[in-house]
Amino acid sequence: MDLSGRIHRVIMQVDDGANTNGFFMDSDQGPTMLRADIKSLKYNDWIVTGALEIGIQSNRSFNVSQDNPNPGTDIQTREANVNLQNKKYGKFSLGRGFSAAWVAPEIDLSGTVPAALLAVGNLAPGMLFVDRSNDQLSNIHVYDHFADTERLLLVDRFRYDSPHINNLQLSGTIAADSRWDMALRYYPTLANWTLRSALTYLHKPFQGLDNRVELGASARHNETGLSLTLGWAYGDRTDGEDSHGYIGKLGWLSNLNSLGSTAFSIDYGKASDVRLLGDSSKSVGLFAYQKWEEVGLDFYAGYRLYEVKRPDIDLYPLKTFTLGIIYNF
Fold it and tell me: N or C: which end of the chain has fewer CB within 10 A?
């Protein structure tokens, strides 16, 4: 058995248009956890493995908001999984874990993934927007318009991942409540470039959507460290309307010092008709990420803007300034 863990803490300053406040939180972007991995047990050509991961978060960012700055400790089972794997037939997984459609951290080659996920709602999902008409907190959270997709795709399920054939892999998940999804990954190997791309389909991914299609691709030039990541999503809402959005991210992965790799990224995303007809949302992020590889510490700092426009309420933009530290052991 291999034991490992992670501590991921952030200090966040939030400007909601009416007030500016500071918060001490546990991040939802690769949260604090303890993990046990059962080493491989071989039977003929089959390999059996298992994993148990427990998230232990004090002031989890999903629960922290301006009117609830200290929600306490959140303990949850993030993974409880048994895997049966064969080189010829692929991998079968039963238990709690990520569904096949959780591809966002895999395809992002910028180097700032633990600080700035393509699923931008994971940074400050619980924060509330302020109503311009009275400078009071509304009941609209960041996660209402910027989906916290890790939470949505971390489920109890049966999952299958095919073997890699010509750099292609097909995956599928069946979960409760008639939910299922599929993902096609394409990870080619080139001399001077690293490429990642994925196409996913989600059936009833969360309340308000009948289905959702996502397409993402990332390319990084190995010599310069420059990368470009693009994502697009389309959703069929239960009320008959469609939602759609996109994100673009520029990154630079470099070795500026002897501690470890240094990464910078800037991203811009926009979506419309996510919650109701006529709404729109956009996000802008700028982050820097530093690894201290010898001791297992990562540091980062960044800024993110969330802006939502709705026909039923006028909201101030919400701005976050984040300092984060990650210790892997």
Answer: N
Rounded to a whole number of angstroms, the distance between the first and last alpha carbons of the chain is 15
Provide the β-strand partners of residue 20: 15
Tell me the whole-structure pTM to 2 decimals: 0.93
Residue 166 tokens read as 């010509």
> Distance (Å, rounded) from C-alpha 118 to C-alpha 120?
5
Kindly report the backbone phi and psi dihedral angles of residue 161, in degrees, each rounded to the nearest multiple of 5, phi listed first: -125, 120
pLDDT digits (tens, 9 = 90+) for 120-173: 999 999 999 999 999 999 999 999 999 767 767 899 999 999 999 999 999 999
Domain count, the chain: 1
Q: How far apart are alpha carbons 176 and 157 in whole angstroms?
A: 7
Q: What is the CATH number of the domain that holds 292?
A: 2.40.160
Q: Which residue has the tokens 């956890």?
A: 33
Do 314 and 15 touch, CB atoms closer than 8 A?
no
- Here the tokens at position 15 are 């400007």
Coil/strand/helix, residue 129: strand
CB atoms within 10 A of CB 249: 24
Domain containing residue 200: 13-23+97-328
Look up residue 4 and give its amino acid. S
